[in-house]
Amino acid sequence: MAVILRTHGGLGNQLFQILYARLYSGAIAQPYFEIHDENYAHKFSRSVEIADNGSPTRLRQRLISTARFPKLRTKSRFCPTEKVRILGDVYLDGYFQDFKDYQAFPDAMIAQEVARFRIELKINPQASSNAEKLYHLRLGDFFDDRKKAVEHAITRMETFDANCTIITNQEDIFEDERIADYLKSRGCHLHSTRDFAPEDVIRLMSRFGSIYTNNSTLALWASVLGNSITTFDDKRLSALHMRMFNAVNGPS
Question: With CB atoms counted within 10 Å of each terminal CB, which end of the chain scores lower, N or C?
């Protein structure tokens, strides 16, 4: 028997998928393997810094994973699950971003795997003693219309402190005259991450004591790994963050 994980999406998504696979395979004492799927609009590559357990050894396993059976079942109202057992193997294909996904695992197991992520990503959790705030705006893949992205950025920035630091995944939006004028009037600074790898971005974010975000999984992980404070408008992400943060750092 083996556990076959299909990874996809950006680094924030991958961390959840890999975390779940490591926890689940550890709980049942079975090896797990991975297949990375780049057949998405943004074609995110698999993180090179997070250890890869290698590809499935059997052709049958690769074919079943490629057929996306767990994903098909997830879309069915009769059997909504991101985990499917077929011919003795377990196939994982989903986001694993519900706090219920981690209820079966003790805090100690989650803390151990997060500690492993910290080592792999070279993150030292010292942010709790840092009062500096970071404002993170995810725009590029949240909006399919530039005008909506600009309006969202302006609305969010109205709540930002003066002289703040901002990062975003679509920096050209901040070239809009209205946003540029607002930044200048408030003394805010856009910290460019244009040439950063996703791992560099999460390392930067984890160094701040507080992260204000518009519901980014990357910000969630930066908070958990760096022991920094953040909140989410999305109730699902808020519950998930609380589960992860408390398991790793103790109840807040």
Answer: C
